[in-house]
Structures are given as structure tokens and as C-alpha cells.
Amino acid sequence: MNIVVYGAGGVGGYFGGLLAKASFEVTFIARGKTLEAIKTNGLQVKSIKGDFIVKPKVTNDISEVKDPDVIILGVKSWQIEEVAKQIKPVLTKNTLVLPLQNGADNADRLREILNPKNVLAGLCKIVSKIEAPGVINHFAFEPEIVFGEYDNQKSDRVKDLKSVFDKAGFKNVISDDIHLDIWKKFLFIATISGMGALTRSKFGVMRSDEHIRSMIYQTAHEIVTIANAKGIGLTNEDVDMVLAVIDQLNPETTASMQRDIMEGRPSELDNFNGYIVKTGKQLHISTPINSFTYHCLLPQEKKARKLL
User: Fold this and answer.
1) Keyword set for this entry (predicted)?
2) Helix or strand run (H / E) with residue 1
């Protein structure tokens, strides 16, 4: 199977690295120092499940890839449209495009640009980061990919893709309701990311502070309200699940959006809390905590994007 992994960060680097380690034909799309590091030294993955190094194909030019069977998107949510336009010319009628980035509407945004028949829906669960160009550090959580057809059909092509993932040795599931699963992940990541960026605090600090914990609850409940208005069946039990996960994770944990904001990089703020605020306005639903978080962080986001 001809696999393209667009992005060699904490997500693409880890899962793509395992696919390459399993001897699948994998081409990474990378740029800058990451591109040069992988060309020179290979891709190094440091993981709580075992370290390894692979030497996959890597390029910054998607046009070099011919007839890809699968393109796994490991970029940030705010890069979806740009990447979709770049990959569109190389897609065949059978190419599968699997988005793994955080966010509630990535598959929808891809389907607006690409042939909807090419687009799967998916998410991943992993706590990882770029330690250095070409070096990925997976330091918490059991990595997993959850994916499926947009309409939840158990098609032969998703079963074939699961077989590939099984051979690569990481946990993966064909979802019974991929949109609900995406929103469950979104509920967690949007809730904790915004609050982490706002407080500049690690999970252990936030979960033990009574007032911040209350704001986490309120953030999550607003997201559930928006999801329900869109026909997504999130419940109060899912809010409890979010807090349970936060309580179980290493107290030193931080979220990737939080790290981006704290380090002055463009982040997924608009795709997380911003998406809830925007959708709330469209649906005439008040989202005061998400709005507070979003607008307090927005000046820093604009600065990182050189809009201020």
C-alpha cells in the first residue's frame, strides 16, 4: 500500500513512523529543518512504548507522489484547506484521505474542497510532541486511531485500512458513529486546551484548583449544548469522562494548542473555542465561558499570525 503522511509532527511522525517500521511504503511530506533532518538522520521516535528509528521517503513536493492509496493528514486544523488544495491534484478516485487532527469539522472542510468519496473521518488519541526536527517524543497515553466512512458504513476499504494499521501494531478502531467519537475527542481537547492556554498551567494545577475546575466543567457543558443542537449525542456523562481523563493524566501534561500559544506559534484556537463561539452565534446559543477564553487568547493568536 502506497501511504502518504502529510506532516511529521507528534501525530504524523508517530503513526507514520510505525507504518514505515512495519515495512509499508510510506512517504512523508515535510519541510524546512524537519525535511533535512529526516533525509539525513531518518525519523526518530522516542516513545513510552519503545524507541525506534526509520528511514522513510520524505519530500516537500506532493507532486512527486504517484497514485497514493492513503493520505494521512497530521497537520494542524487551521492548515486543512491549504493542504487539501495541495493534495487534490494527486488523488485518484480510490485514494483515501484520513484527517487525524483535532477539531470537530475537519472532514466537512475537506469534503468542500475534495471529492467527498475520497474523504474518511477520523481522530487520534496520543500525547506527543516534536522534541527536535525529525525527533518525536510520545510521552503519555495509549496511541490510537479511530476512523470510519463519513456515513459510518463498514466498507471494504476501511476494513482494508484497519488491516494495515493492525500490521503496524498500534491500536485502531473502525467507529460505529465516527461523528460522535470526533465530538467526544473534541469535547476533551477544546475544553482543556483553552483553559490551559489561558491559565498557563499544567493539568495537575488546573484540576486541583476549585475555580478553574468549575470553569472546565462550564466550558465542556457549553460544547455539549452546541453538539446537541447539531444532532450530536454528547451527554453529561461525556463531561464526566473529560474530567476523569484529566484526573488520570500525568499532572505535568499540557495540551498542544496550549504549548503553541505559550511559545508564540499559530494555534488551533479558532478551530477549538473559536469554533464553539462561532457556531453558538449561528445557532443563537450563548457560550460565555468559551467566548471569554477565546477573546482573551485572540490577541496572542493574532500576534503569532502577524495580524497585530
Assistant:
1) NADP, Oxidoreductase, Pantothenate biosynthesis
2) none
Q: Which one is the CATH code of 2-176: 2.40.50.320, 3.20.20.70, 3.40.50.720, 2.40.128.630? A: 3.40.50.720
Residue with cell 449561528: 282
Superfamily the domain 180-304 falls into: N-(1-d-carboxylethyl)-l-norvaline Dehydrogenase; domain 2 (1.10.1040.10)
> Any idea what the Cα angle at residue 205 is, between residues 240 and 214, rounded to 5°?
40
Looking at residue 127, its pLDDT comes to 87
Q: How far is residue 18's CA from residue 49's CA, in Å, rounded to a whole number? A: 11
Name the region of 108 (left: φ>0; alpha: ψ -120 to 50; beta: rest).
alpha
Measured between its terminal Cα atoms, the distance across the chain in Å is 45
Instruction: Name every residue whose Cβ is closer than 8 Å to that of residue 13 and which is 6 or more positions away in sequence.
Output: 7, 43, 45, 74, 128, 130, 136
Which parts of 30-69 are beta strand (E)? 43-47, 52-54, 57-59
pLDDT in tens, 187-239: 999 999 999 999 999 999 999 999 999 999 999 999 999 999 999 999 999 99
| Cell numbers for 272 | 477549538
